[in-house]
């Protein structure tokens, strides 16, 4: 093989490596972009009557699965939670910590079921050699309710007032170095009554 042929062959191998590296980078960039658009359940899929709620260490948004509700109908309240960077909150069932908990105030206008929490992630705490269940990425709490019969909502319907539901979200957030004081955030939903327009 002549020196010119060796040079040409080496150049082609080098170009092939650069091409493959560029293709891999492009695929990685596209995958990350798609992931960043779709990995935040606080935004997708959209929730109805969304309201941002001020909170420490978390971004909170409340909403429902439909824009209006009829008497006697089933409805799901939603709390979308996004821990701030490097933060986590504890999942229900952790006996040694203060887990996140949604609790609705009693009312004659609805009956509440049990809130539904998504599966949690495992976190190892090397300082104490313990594994705990936490939420460190955006997630949603779903709270099923059944709206009261029409007679219980008559006053609201006559005055065109929405169904008002209140509750509290309690949690304790931690980062890599410290756990912050427990928080109790008041929440409220206001849902128009009547068939969809």
What does this molecule look like?
The protein is an alpha+beta fold and 197 residues long. The protein is 21% helix and 37% strand. It is built from 2 helices and 12 strands; from the N terminus they run H-E-E-E-E-E-E-E-E-E-H-E-E-E. The chain has a 5-stranded antiparallel beta sheet, with no helix packed on it. The longest helix has 36 residues, at 3-38. The N and C termini lie far apart (80 Å). Mean pLDDT is 80; it is low at 3-40.
Q: Strand order within the widest sheet?
A: 1-2-3-9-6
Q: Provide the gyration radius in Å.
A: 25 Å
Residues in β-strands, percent? 35-45%
Head-to-tail CA distance between termini: 80 Å
Q: What string gives the helices and strands in order?
A: HEEEEEEEEEHEEE
Structural class: alpha+beta
How many DSSP E strands?
12
Count of helices? 2
- Residue stretches low in confidence (pLDDT < 50, at least 5 long) are 3-40
State the helicity in percent bands: 10-25%
What is the residue-averaged pLDDT? 80
Task: Sketch the major β-sheet.
Answer: 5 strands, antiparallel
Tell me, briefly, the overall form. Answer: elongated
């Amino acid at each position: 093989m002549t020196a010119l042929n060796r040079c040409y062959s080496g150049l082609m191998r080098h170009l092939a490596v650069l091409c493959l590296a560029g293709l891999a980078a492009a695929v990685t960039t596209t995958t990350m972009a798609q992931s960043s658009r779709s990995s935040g359940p606080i935004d997708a899929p959209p929730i109805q009557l969304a309201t941002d709620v001020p909170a420490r260490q978390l971004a909170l948004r409340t909403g429902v699965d439909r824009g209006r509700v009829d008497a006697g109908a089933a409805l799901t309240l939603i709390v979308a939670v996004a821990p701030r960077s490097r933060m986590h909150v504890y999942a229900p069932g952790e006996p040694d910590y203060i887990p996140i908990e949604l609790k609705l105030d009693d009312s004659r206008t609805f009956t509440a079921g049990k809130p539904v929490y998504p599966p949690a992630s495992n976190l190892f705490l090397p300082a104490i050699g313990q594994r705990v269940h936490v939420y460190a990425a955006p997630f949603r709490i779903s709270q099923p309710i059944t709206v009261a019969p029409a007679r219980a909502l008559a006053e609201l319907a006559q005055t065109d007032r929405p169904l008002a539901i209140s509750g509290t979200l309690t949690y304790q957030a931690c980062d890599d170095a410290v756990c912050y004081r427990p928080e109790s955030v008041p929440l409220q939903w206001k849902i128009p009554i009547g068939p969809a327009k």
